Description:
Helices cover 35% and strands 19% of the residues. Strands 12, 13, 14, 15, 16, 17 and 18 form a 7-stranded antiparallel beta sheet that branches. It has 673 residues and is an alpha+beta fold. It has 5 domains: 7-63, Helix Hairpins (Orthogonal Bundle), CATH 1.10.287; 84-317, 2-Layer Sandwich (D-amino Acid Aminotransferase, Chain A, domain 1); 322-397, CATH 2.40.50.140; 416-589, 5' to 3' exonuclease, C-terminal subdomain (DNA polymerase, domain 1); 594-670, 3-Layer(aba) Sandwich (Rossmann fold), CATH 3.40.50. The radius of gyration is 35 Å and the shape is elongated. It comes from Halovibrio salipaludis.
Amino acid sequence: MTREDSPEQRIDALRREIDHHNYRYYALDDPEVSDEHYDRLLRQLQELEAQHPELVTAESPTQRVGVAPESLFAEAPHETPMLSLDNAFDEDELRDFDRRVRERLGRDEPVDYACEPKLDGLAISLLYRNGVLHRAATRGDGYTGEDITANVRTIRAIPLQLYGDDYPDAFEVRGEAYMPLDGFERLNQQLAEAGEKTFVNPRNAAAGSLRNKDPRVPARRPLSFCSYSVDVPKDAGLPARHYDQLLKLRDWGFRIDPEIRRVTGIEDCITYYREMLEKRESLNYEIDGIVYKVNDLALQDRLGFVSRAPRWAIATKFPAHEVMTRVREVAFQVGRTGAITPVARLDPVFVGGVTVSNTTLHNMDEIERLGLREGDWVMIRRAGDVIPQVVRVLTEKRPDDTRVIELPEACPECGSAIEQPEDEAVARCTGGLFCPAQRKEAIRHYASRRALDIEGLGEQWVNVLVDEGMVETVADLYHLKTQDLTRLERMGEKSASNLVNAIADSREPDLDRLIYALGIREVGEATARGLARHFGDLDALMEADEEQLQEIEDVGPVVAGHIRSFFAEPHNREIIQRLREAGVSYRAPERVDDSESPFSGTTVVVTGTLERYSRDQARAALEARGAKVAGSVSSNTDYLVAGEGGGSKLSKARQQGVSILDEATFLEWLGEA
C-alpha cells in the first residue's frame, strides 16, 4: 500500500492480506507471519474502519472470527459460537477496557476479574452427553469447526467419562489443546533421530498432531488439555461466577490452569500480568499473554457482545517469541577453537523481550537445511534466555535480489586456510597459533599443566596479558620481563619474577609435550607421544605426509588430515620459528631397543609415588620400551608398578592376580638399577 491509495483501497488490501493469513494460520496450520504482525494488521484495519464506517462490510475480518476449515474432517457446528477476544496492547488500553466495563455497568466500585494465562495451543470444544465425551471439534470459523473426536480421545488429560453426577445432560467445555515443553523437546529429538521433519514450536506440534488423519499419531505424542470455559444451559445450576465454574470443571475431571486467579480492580490485573510475565519462562507450557474476564456471569450477560468478541473479556499479549524480519547479510565469525560460524545480520526486531539484530546459523549444513539466502525474509524465535534462532525461511516472500551464501575460502580474522572435513558440519580456521580469535585459547592451552606446565599462567592472567596487548602469540611469552609485568594491577614483583622464571623453565620440554602444546586439532597427549616416538624430531613431523602419519597407531585419515593442515599453514610455521628464536627447544624421546625389554608388548599401570620418577617420566620410560601405559587396572593389565600409597589400584591388582612390581624391580627391568 502507498499513502496515495484511497481509504477503500487500503481497507480492501488489508482485508485480503488478513484473510490470507487467517487461511494459513487456521486452515493450514502454516502461518507466514508472527502473531504480533497479524495483530498489527488487524489493528490497522480496525482503525481505518472506525474512520470510515460506511466501508464496513459483513465479510470484513473485523466482523467475524476466522475462516472456514479445510475439508480434511467432517464439519462440526458449535452450539454457541467460539468467539475470539479483543486485545489490549499496553496497560493504558487495559485500563480503558476496565473503564468501559464500569461505565456500561453504571458503577464506580472495582470489578472482580478472573485472570488466566493464555495458553499457546489449539482451541477446541468438547461436547459431553450424559457425562460421556460425545464429540470434539476445532474452533474453525467460530461457528463451524472440524470433528477431531478420534484424535482428542487419545489425550489423557481429557476425561472420556466425567467424575461425579451433578453435571448437565448436555454441555460444551472449551479449552486449549497444547504440548508441554519437555514433551515437545522429546518429540523433536525423536523425529530428528528418525530423519523426519521437526516442528517449529509447540503450538504447531499440537495442531499438526490433532489434525492428523491417523489417530495413532496423536496417541504417540505428549498432548495435554486445559479448560478455560463451559457453555451450559442457564438452568443447569452451576455457580454464578466464572472462577467457581472452572473449579467445578476440575471436580468433573478437567485440568484447569493452576495459575488462574481472582482479583479485584484493574490494577490487580496489571500486577498479575507483570508477575506472570516474570514467571513465564519457568512454566512447562507456552503462554503468549493473559486473558481477563469479568467474573460475575450476570454482569457478563449485561455487558453482552460485539460482533466478534465479548465486551466482558480482553487479552493482553506478552512480548512475541516469534517475529518476522529480513536477513541483511551473513557474516562469518571465528570462535576460540577456530570454529567458523555463520551469523545472520538482521533488520532489528523486538522478540522475546529484547531487540535482536544478530543470530547464529550454527554451520553451513543449517543454512542448507533452512534454504536460506542473504536478503530472505525469515521467522525469528526467542523464548526466555534461549539464543534467538531462525526457525524458517519465508520463501513465498523471497525478493528477486537474494544472494546464495558460501563458506569463505580463508579465515576472516587471520587469512589462514579454512578446513572442513566431508563428514563434519563445522568448518575451522587452520591458523591456530596465529589467529587473533583463537589467541587466548592457544596461549591457555600452551601453558596448561599437561602441555608446558607454566605455573602461574592461568586463564585469568592469559586474559590480562592479551587484553593489555603484551602477548599476541605463544612466542611473545618468552620476551616478557619482570618490570613489564609489575605494571599490571595485582601483579607484585615476586609474582612477576616467579612467572618469568616459570616461562623460562618451559624452554626445553619433552617433544611430546611440545607437540601437544601446539594445539593441533584432535591431537591429545597419547597421540602426541606416539608422534614424538615415531618421528623423534619436530622437523620430521612437520614434513610428514598423511600416509606417513597414518603409520602411527591411533592416527587415522581424519587426524592425519588435521596434522597436515596445521603444519601446511604458513602462519603456524612462522610461530614455531619464532619459538625457536626465543630459545625454545625440546628433549627428544628416549631411544631404547625394546626387543629385549620385559615390558615390550605389555600393558602396565603405574600407581602411588615413586622416588626416582614422576608419573609422567615413568610413563615415558615404559613407552620407550614398547609398553602401553593404561590408567586403570583391568583384565588386560600385565603389570602394576606400585610406589608408596598404591591405594585402590593396588587392591584391585591383587584381587585380579596382576603381577605387582615395586620400585626396585621396576628400575631393574628398565635397566637402571
